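Open question from group meeting: does this chain pack into something compact, or does most of it stay loose? Before anyone orders reagents, we agreed to write out a predicted structure and look at it together. Recording both the input and the output here so the notebook holds the full record.
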Amino acid sequence: MYQFESCVRYSELHEDGLLAVPKIVDYFQDCSTFQSEDLGVGIEYLTERKIAWILSFWQIQILRRPGIGERVTIGTFPYEFKSFLGMRNFFMKDEQGQMLVQASSIWSLLDTERFRPVRPDEEMRTRYVLEERLPMDYAPRKLVMEEGGERLAPIQILPDFQDTNHHVNNARYVTIAMDALEMMGENPQVKELLIEYKGQAHKGDLVYPVVLKVEQGYQIKLENEQGAALINMHMMTA
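Structure tokens returned:
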């Protein structure tokens, strides 16, 4: 298990005064990156071997969003390797050790030259210590999206939306989806996010949010100009 401590900053707040949902994703992503770097299988290791871990699926359950100045502990650990897939849990706890956010994720290891999945080598498997997964109610990996929804004006991908893999960082897609809801006058209290990553966007591309109100919250698709899905998201709200 890898953990680090932080303090919720003003720059990380939503306008409601609590930690913004995309910043939760940032914390989790940073935590797994820190662990990989500490284990010697981080960005340089992957780049030299022309491989990369690409996020396929998020399940994020939000019990409580912390506010300004709260000290939090962020942690992560892998719990399964299956062929070219890696499964990883994340959590955020308060100073008393109470769970604030818990999450599960599925990552695909890809050859960045041939864009094909590859199995992690023995060195990588040895350095990552598998642990028992968190006692969550795990959702199916594939989302069932309903037809319909309102297609909103496109968002152009700016340079700072990209990461070291030269495509839109997974957390930025969450930002686009949350912004789309707010542009519609919606400001939901998110309880759970299910996100299926299906495609990639790059600098200069246009991304179209498609929003559908459903019984338990919202279904949001982010599509490219041709209408192909980049992500499917199911957002459960309070």
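Observations to bring back to the group:
The mean pLDDT is 94.
The first strand starts at residue 2 and ends at 7.
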